[in-house]
Write a structure and sequence with these properties.
Layout lengths: L8 E4 L6 E9 L3 H5 L3 E2 L12 E8 L6 E10 L10 E8 L1 H13 L3 E2 L4 H8 L5 H12 L3 H11 L2 H25 L10 H20 L1 H9 L1 E6 L6 H9 L17 E7 L2 E7 L9 H15 L3 E7 L6 H12 L31 E6 L9 H7 L5 E3 L8 H13 L14 H22 L4 H19 L5 H9 L6
Parallel strand pairs: 1-7, 8-10, 8-11, 11-12, 12-13
Antiparallel strand pairs: 1-2, 2-6, 3-4, 4-5, 5-6, 9-10
Helix pairs in contact: 4-5, 6-7, 6-15, 7-14, 14-15
This protein binds guanosine-5'-diphosphate (GDP).
Length: about 500
């Protein structure tokens, strides 16, 4: 990874495609020197314009004098910029070719093409954002519900970092006292007593555990729930998708097998992004095109957190229905419809990662309840004991609210979502915090038993470092690379 801050980077910062405006962003020590000669202003003005103001002018190719675009350009002097470096943003017309040509001019004048996330990486390396805040930038951009957006914004404003730093501070105080007494025994630094040390350790533990307690829910808000809609053709899968989305995006037709591919859409279920995958069905077919769809559906089902298994209530169960059930069972679905609580004694709201369940849950949907019902409900219940069964009609919308209720209950295990207490949304943060919590707990044991204080400080150090991974103080080069690589170019 390029962690070299001495060069100047450039990239198109707006998404690819055609738009009203597009922005080329340049950051680094030579940003002004690179752009200034490209900008032809009225009256032939050449002095550096005032910082953080828009300057009107044309971008002109220096060698041919060709006018490429009419622009507004912001020259922003360090350190009050996104990267804390000198930054120039050229607002041109939003055509990919125009923007590429402007970017190329900057590259020709000595800028280097920015890597994904490199502007934000620089903001991190220059100390403007810590790592949790830098990650929040990405979350904010990709958030899919208002709740997710609110959580990302909290993180960007430093709420996680604040609490993590507070816990680190408590630990550091204890570590310092222990290490002073070990390093300078002859200099009359008294050996601290357990009773003096434990309040700060316990305070740190409380803080870390409080963050961890909301993490399961937080992750759910951010990552959502992968939900596959499965069933034989024509039972109403696409109609169900539409009902949940309350829109008409998937094609609904009365011909069996029209949804040949998988369709993925995101519905907002009380702030949780529900990634709905409408599948072509997972039964064997000789049609090669349908076969591709079937393979994709199977993959979608395999990776799902939750299955909505749809049958047609107006017909008796068919061999195909049974085969779908068998396949799903073989894939490991058929949970009791309850979240198994992780019994680690520390997460009060239960861990909600549905993948943690012994068997992932299935909700049975008996559709077309507006028609005369011929389906053998008892047989279905026998095949899927414990799975919730809901009668729906996509014509009248009957049962949809009940279905949503069921999904929410399943996910929350009866608890209401509290976005206020769900600060932690990232698995990475959750893992670091869990490690920190384990080490803090482990440090208390030797303290209670009166063992030498080295035993205590080893774990406290490890906890301190684990917390530092959240904010980035102790993040490895590898980790940074992994995180920033997920960003888009130009961010
Ligand atoms: P898919 O192949 O499983 O995706 O099924 P579709 O959603 O394409 O629906 C197949 C047919 O059943 C369409 O003609 C729908 O209008 C009809 N349909 C879907 N849901 C219902 C329902 O609840 N009641 C009735 N009467 N027809 C439905």
């Amino acid at each position: 990874m390029q962690n070299n801050l001495s060069d100047t980077i450039a990239a198109i910062a707006t998404p690819p495609g055609y738009g009203g405006i597009g922005i080329v962003r340049i950051s680094g020590p030579d940003a002004f020197a690179i752009v200034l000669p490209l900008l032809r202003r009225p009256g032939g003005e050449t002095a550096l314009p005032p910082s953080h103001m828009l300057t009107y002018g044309h971008i002109v190719a220096p060698d041919t004098q060709e006018i490429l675009d009419e622009t507004l350009v912001a020259f922003m002097r360090a350190p009050h910029t996104y990267t804390r470096e000198d930054v120039v943003e050229i607002q041109g017309h939003g055509g990919p070719l125009i923007l590429q040509r402007i970017a190329r001019l900057a590259l020709a004048r000595g800028a280097r093409m920015a890597n994904p996330g490199e502007f934000t990486l620089r903001a991190f390396l220059n100390g403007r954002l810590d790592l949790a805040q830098a990650e929040a930038v990405m979350d904010l951009i990709s958030s899919q519900t208002e709740v997710g957006q609110r959580l990302a914004m909290q993180q960007l404003r430093g709420r996680i970092s604040e609490q993590v730093q507070h816990a680190r501070h408590s630990l550091l105080g204890v570590i310092a006292r222990i290490e002073a007494s070990i390093d300078f025994p002859e200099e009359d630094v008294p050996t601290p007593q357990a009773a003096e040390l434990s309040p700060s350790i316990l305070e740190a533990q409380r803080q870390v555990d409080r963050l961890l307690a909301g993490a399961g829910q937080g992750r759910l808000y951010r990552q959502g729930l992968r939900t596959a809609i499965i069933g034989r053709p024509n039972v109403g899968k696409s109609s169900l998708l539409n009902a949940l989305l309350r829109s008409e995006r998937a094609i609904v037709t009365p011909i069996a097998g029209t949804t040949r591919d998988t369709v993925e859409e995101v519905a907002n279920l009380r702030g949780i992004p529900l990634h709905l995958i409408d599948t072509a069905g997972i039964m064997p077919t000789s049609d090669p095109v349908e076969q591709i769809g079937v393979e994709r559906s199977r993959a979608a089902a395999e990776s799902a957190d939750l299955i909505l298994l749809v049958v047609d209530g107006s017909e008796p169960l068919t061999a195909q229905d049974h085969r779908v059930s068998e396949e799903l069972w073989a894939m490991g679905f058929g949970g009791e419809g309850e979240i198994r609580r992780r019994d680690d004694g520390q997460s009060d709201p239960p861990a909600v990662a549905l993948q943690d369940m012994a068997r992932r849950p299935v909700i049975l949907i008996v559709n077309k309840s507006d028609c005369r019902q011929l389906v053998e409900v008892a047989q279905l219940r026998q095949t899927w004991p414990g799975a919730p069964l809901i009668h729906t009609s996509m014509l009248t919308n009957a049962g949809i609210a009940e279905l949503e209720e069921h999904i929410a209950n399943l996910v929350l295990a009866g608890k209401t979502l509290q976005s206020e207490s769900a600060l932690i949304t990232s698995t990475r943060h959750q893992e670091s915090l869990r490690r920190a919590s384990d080490h803090i707990r482990a440090s208390l044991l030797p303290l209670r038993e009166g063992l030498p204080l080295d035993f205590v400080s080893i774990d406290l150090r490890a906890a301190y470092d684990a917390l530092g991974e959240v904010t980035g103080e102790t993040a490895s080069e590898d980790l940074l690379e992994r995180i920033f690589h997920e960003f888009c170019i130009g961010k």
